[in-house]
Design brief:
By secondary structure, this protein is α/β, with parallel strands linked by helices. It is built from 9 helices and 6 strands, in the order H-H-E-H-H-E-H-E-H-H-E-E-E-H-H.
Length: 312
């Protein structure tokens, strides 16, 4: 997510890190740092245009800066070798997924195993760069498929169901991605926790009809989970902070206004005066699924650093 130059680090390491992260301006108003757990226990969502639901864990720029400081505090505590390795992602990471499929009490309303296999392929293609973006160090495998019949949780309300359901169902460590699949409403496609929060509440919640073959067109090709897992790995939206600096804290994603433009797949959009057109094809934008196809090298580097700092 964020970047800044780390004092006391060898020049070559600092430069490598700066290529992936953005330095917060020295003139920025100081923000009280609530610490890594409090700051990173937040999350972020994906919404459709005209959604009546809101992001249940909206992140302000002040919170984003605090999260960035938490990341760099962790990185500074590493040895120079480990810090450099975290930035470039030297080794492949296979992430195990617990598919938490919520159904109605009678067992209906869930997604099929075939849809889960198709969703897994979407994730692996996206994170390996096969769709057109950067090749990250991450791949995914199914660990468990857990089906839970609970009509109340199937009609998932982030405000009332998130903590009870996750506390009851979550399995595994902070290295395991728990994906809760339920009937979200109000145009909410999904939401996720960032790194550093309580393990039992960690994970991603997505709309069941957003999986490949679902009915939520044009958001039914599986990119909601790609987007939300990006948050789980530590990425912000491309429009985080709008046209301010350092916006989403990744240098190679151009600044993008946080307005209706974020829903449009229009490559001519250039909503900020800073160099670069709006990154409409980026997985961390709000464009519809057929438009999304890439992470950047800087985003891959940030995800790597976040993983080694908080999940490794």
């Amino acid at each position: 997510m964020n970047r800044f130059v780390l004092g006391g680090v060898a020049v070559t390491t600092t430069l490598a890190f700066a290529s992936a992260f953005v330095t917060s301006p020295a003139s920025a108003t100081p923000v009280r740092d609530s610490g890594p757990v409090a700051a990173c226990a937040q999350g972020s969502a994906r919404l459709t245009k005209g959604a009546t639901a809101s992001d249940p864990n909206s992140i302000s720029q002040a919170q984003a800066r605090a999260m960035n400081r938490a990341l760099h505090k962790r990185l500074r505590a590493m040895t120079p070798q480990a810090r450099h390795a975290a930035m470039i992602g030297p080794s492949a990471v296979t992430v195990k997924i617990n598919w938490q499929v919520i159904t109605k009490n009678d067992g209906t309303g869930g997604v099929s195993n075939r849809q889960l296999r198709r969703q897994l392929k979407v994730l692996n293609d996206s994170y390996s760069g096969l769709t057109g973006g950067a090749d990250t160090r991450f791949s995914f495998v199914t660990n468990q498929i857990i089906r839970t019949a609970n009509t109340n949780w199937w009609n998932w309300n982030p405000n009332t169901d998130d903590a009870p359901a996750k506390n009851a169902l979550h399995k595994g460590s902070k290295r395991v991605l728990n994906v809760y699949i339920a009937n979200l409403g109000g145009g909410l496609l999904g939401y996720a926790t960032f790194t550093g929060g309580p393990v039992k509440l960690d994970g991603v919640v997505i709309l069941n009809q957003s999986l490949p073959g679902g009915s939520a067109a044009p958001f039914n090709e599986g990119d909601t989970l790609t987007h939300e897992s990006g948050h789980w790995f530590g990425l912000f939206h491309t429009f985080q902070g709008g046209c301010s600096t350092p916006n989403d804290f990744v240098a190679d994603t151009p600044q993008q206004d946080n307005g209706p433009n974020k829903f449009l797949c229009d490559t001519t959009l250039d909503t900020c005066s800073a160099p670069g057109s709006d990154p409409v094809h980026n997985f961390m934008n709000y464009s519809d699924d057929p438009c999304l196809n890439r992470f950047t090298v800087g985003q891959a580097s940030r995800m790597s650093a976040e993983w080694d700092a908080f999940r490794a």
